[in-house]
Amino acid sequence: MATTNKLRSSPSLIFLSLALLFHFYLCKGDLLLNYYSESCPNAEDIIRQEVTDLYNKHGNTAVSWVRNLFHDCMVKSCDASLLLETVNGIESEQASERSFGMRNFKYVSTIKEALEKECPLTVSCADIVALSARDGIVMLGGQRIEMKTGRRDSKESYANFVEESLPNHNDSITLVLSRFQSIGLDVEGIVALLGAHSVGRTHCTNLVQRLYPTVDPTLDPQYAEYLKGRCPTPNPDPKAVLYARNDRETPMILDNMYYKNLLSHKGLLIVDQQLASDPTTYPYVKKFATDNGYFQDQFAKAVLLLSENNPLTRDDGEIRKDCRYVNSI
Ligand code: HEM
Ligand SMILES: *[C@@H]1O[C@H](CO)[C@@H](O)[C@H](O)[C@H]1NC(C)=O
């Protein structure tokens, strides 16, 4: 007891803990607002312009940028590892079953090319993932989120890590919560983040389990009929473009309709519907369903936290020239 007390008050220990605290503070601080202000002053404007042009041509690109943030940042870090393609010993994370249905990767190259033209080898693909999600959210009617930049790109893909990082569509609420808690989100933030399912689509393979052989009793019967109409067979060809809108009412608007749907038993995936039945998440579903402004604030906070998960900075990683490949190839 006496030794512990002596240790606790020892000046060198205090110094060590302060140094450690400072170290962690600095590591976080490696991301900066306007990181490219000197090296590529127009970087953020270029990304916003490209995201806007792409949205006007292919509206669903904005939706893809939001999903990309989740799939990139949850797997180890926001490091654009998601964007690497299978080549020379690299196995793409995109090939994982969890990435099923992801689209529009080719348009990341459109954004990257515009940046390379203005400032070669300067703006990371990881920052493109973050800022395109930020700008995509605005296109979809969400808040503008102030995001720091300065992320660097991984030199490897973490395909083997995808399934243990990203929950599946039918995982338990306990597992879903623990996955997100491991990156520092609290329950309210997790419920808010899942509000991203207010936009986009889901393929029938992810739904049929709730429709056949018997209809999931937590599904509204009329809604189940609609879904059966969209997905008429229990074993759909995964490649068939059979899908349902995540939110039938406002499919391309990021809003709190998702939570209203959950309360009326019209959640699309099992992970969605569980938010309304679990006692720890239900209060937030109710709160967000009644207050879109409050939802938007909590969504923005959660997206920001996700976007800052464990970034590579300083000498870690690299700035890729082509987001699909590491530079050394
Ligand atoms: C428990 C966590 C989650 C699970 C299990 C999950 C699962 C899924 C599944 C199965 C789809 C449908 C894919 C398809 O069939 O095409 C989907 C779509 C989508 N997810 Fe998630 N998701 C989760 C969390 C998130 C989060 C946190 C975000 C973003 C912040 C997100 C954004 C999206 C978007 C935008 C789509 C629509 C994509 C499109 O239309 O192309 N998801 N998700
Ligand atoms: C979850 O869905 C997958 C297919 O997407 C299936 O293989 C698995 O058995 C399902 N798990 C549970 C617990 O139902």
Automatic annotation (TrEMBL):
Ca(2+) 1 binds at residues 72, 75, 79, 81, 93. Its EC number is 1.11.1.7. InterPro entries: Haem_peroxidase (IPR002016), Haem_peroxidase_sf (IPR010255), Peroxidase_pln (IPR000823), Secretory_peroxidase (IPR033905). Ca(2+) 2 binds at residues 247, 250, 255. It catalyses: 2 a phenolic donor + H2O2 = 2 a phenolic radical donor + 2 H2O. Substrate binds at residue 167. Keywords: Biological rhythms, Calcium, Disulfide bond, Glycoprotein, Heme, Hydrogen peroxide, Iron, Metal-binding, Oxidoreductase, Peroxidase, Secreted, Signal. It is found in: Secreted. Heme b binds at residue 197. GO terms for biological process: hydrogen peroxide catabolic process; response to oxidative stress; rhythmic process. The record marks 67 as: Transition state stabilizer. The active site is at residue 71. Residues 1-29 form the signal peptide. Removal of H(2)O(2), oxidation of toxic reductants, biosynthesis and degradation of lignin, suberization, auxin catabolism, response to environmental stresses such as wounding, pathogen attack and oxidative stress. These functions might be dependent on each isozyme/isoform in each plant tissue. This is Peroxidase. It comes from Quercus lobata.
